[in-house]
Amino acid sequence: MEKKGLGRGLSALIPSAESKSDPLPLQVEVERIVANSLQPRRWFDEAKIDELAASVRDQGILQPLVVRHRGNGYELIAGERRLRAAVKAGLKAVPVIVREANDNEALQLALVENLQREDLNPVEEARAFERLHEEFGLKQDEIADRVGKSRSTVANSVRLLALPQELQQEIARGRLSMGQARALLGLEQEPLIMAAAREVMDKELSARETERLVRRLKSEKKKRKEPATVDPDLRSVTEKLQRWLGTKVRLLHGAKAAKGRVEIEYYSLPDLERIIRRIMPDTV
Known about the structure:
Strand 6 and strand 7 (260-264) form a beta hairpin. The strands form two sheets. This protein has a five-stranded mixed beta sheet with strand order 1-5-3-4-2. A two-stranded antiparallel ribbon has the order 6-7. It has helices spanning 9-13, 46-59, 80-89, 103-116, 122-136, 140-147, 151-159, 165-173, 178-185, 190-203, 207-224, 232-245, 269-279; strands spanning 26-29, 33-34, 65-70, 73-78, 93-98, 249-253, 260-264. With 284 residues, the chain is of the alpha/beta class. The protein folds into three domains: 9-119, Alpha-Beta Complex (Conserved hypothetical protein from pyrococcus furiosus pfu- 392566-001, ParB domain); 163-224, no CATH class; 232-279, no CATH class. It is elongated and about 80 Å long. The chain starts with 8 loop residues before the first helix and ends in a 5-residue tail after the last helix. The chain contains 13 helices and seven strands.
């Protein structure tokens, strides 16, 4: 099967990154390069860094790092794994391509480079997609185009951020897969999600088995909760609110008085922030 291309990628983000003659790499001393303060990657697998260092000792750095000027030295934009491996391998200098980039451009380059190289764990990837949307206003189809993935892949990835923080950490560690996590999202309520996730990890259920577990739990929940008679107008308002906010909403209306309350569910702090932005876009 032919592998899908990487879309417009890095050259789409910074015009100077696409030219008829790309600048030749420079050899720069490792000690003159500082880490990227905007690095989207938060966790590095030291075992894999050691493997890469062994390759670097044997073959050198095959792909130049991308840097920008910073004082008398350089700040890394893309290639932190290669830089770490070079340090472990004992290299004194590494090949770099120098880009002129402001903070926004540097962040976009770092995000897209990591996403294209599949250097991020699923949660880091989801946060990178979210940052491209929140900080740069890119829509999901635009993000997909830049990193060479389908729009559905981007959408499913971002949905992971609706999971409790504890489960996001388990995904980052590799104890929960994307397929298992997507199935768990169907339970909607955090206590149910956490209980099911513990069962999935304890019993080492597959993604398909997790889907069956979720269907069973939802069916049991539905049987326990008999539907009450709901005013059609209130049901219509509730459905509209749920579509607008993208989450579960309940209107609890007093039987004898013209008052009640509105309950809006959220499943993580990022999800709460998203709902607040939806309700009060000018205050967040």
